[in-house]
Design goal:
This protein is mainly α and 262 residues long. The chain is built from 11 helices and no strands. It has one domain.
């Protein structure tokens, strides 16, 4: 049996555990919350309203349907930060369980990113509400949204594996990553149009910022009603699977040493 077949078989074997871990994460997130899962919709709505009020004076005239533009960027980047931050602590946070019984360590990282994806899908209700409220058009290209979600999920999964393995050995990575994501957010055209940046910075973002690919695809389908260009579309897939390969390689290489440091 090949290594790939073995991993697929293991994944199927532990599918029920993954479901339980994802369900546990979602329940813990909204435990003792009066509104429960409604916060998945209400939270991005509230953030969108605040940011629209703050930034609309600067950018609203230059951007079509600014609330939808802003919400797409913010929700997409929030999925990245939330899923990768929880994935980063997935191994160290389950140290007690890993020391008592054998469970493939990647299961915990996988479940964290998957629970982030479920939460993100629930939050799409906020986007639907804003589109209706702003009388935004619904385009047939929106049926391609799952393709963007898969790309983003694969990218976050790869980054999550990389961060989880690094965090076992270097706990300071949590604080470094927080600073990185803050800078990353401002270098992603979430609340401003990319065209307002200097040409050299625009080029750097288009080439080296993975989130540019996913946010742009999402906006093309939802806001502008067009199919993303081949460079953006295929570039998103390439970056996603490259990140997955790097993350899985790093995780697999170091996994046998985790027990000595957790």
């Amino acid at each position: 049996m090949s290594t790939f077949q073995y991993r697929i078989r293991t994944l199927i074997q532990y599918k029920d555990l993954i479901k339980e871990l994802v369900g546990r994460d979602l329940k813990l997130k909204y435990r003792r919350s009066f509104l429960g899962y409604v916060w998945s919709v209400l939270n991005p709505l509230l953030i969108m309203i605040v940011m629209t009020v703050v930034f609309s004076a600067m950018f609203k005239k230059n951007i079509e349907n600014y609330p939808v533009y802003l919400l797409i960027g913010r929700m997409t980047f929030d999925f990245l930060t939330n899923s990768t931050n929880t994935a980063m602590r997935s191994v160290t946070g389950n140290a007690a369980l890993l020391k008592k019984t054998y469970i493939p360590k990647y299961i915990f990282t996988l479940s964290k990113v998957t629970s982030g994806l479920v939460d993100f899908i629930l939050s799409l209700g906020a986007l639907l509400i804003v589109m209706v409220a702003t009388r935004s058009s619904f385009h047939w290209q929106m049926i391609m949204i799952p393709l963007v979600l898969i790309q983003l999920y694969v990218f976050c999964l790869g980054l999550g594996f990389l961060l989880a393995s690094l965090n076992v050995f270097f706990r300071d990575i949590q604080y470094i990553y927080k600073a990185v994501t803050t800078a990353w957010m401002y270098l992603t055209p979430i609340f401003y149009p990319l065209e307002q940046l200097p040409g050299a910075l625009q080029l750097l973002i288009k080439v080296f910022n993975p989130m540019y690919y996913y946010v742009s695809q999402f906006r093309d389908m939802v806001l502008y009603g067009r199919i993303p260009g081949p460079r953006i579309f295929w570039g998103g897939w390439f970056i996603a699977f490259l990140m997955l390969l790097i993350g899985v390689w790093c995780f697999q290489k170091q996994k046998d040493k985790f027990i000595l440091y957790i």
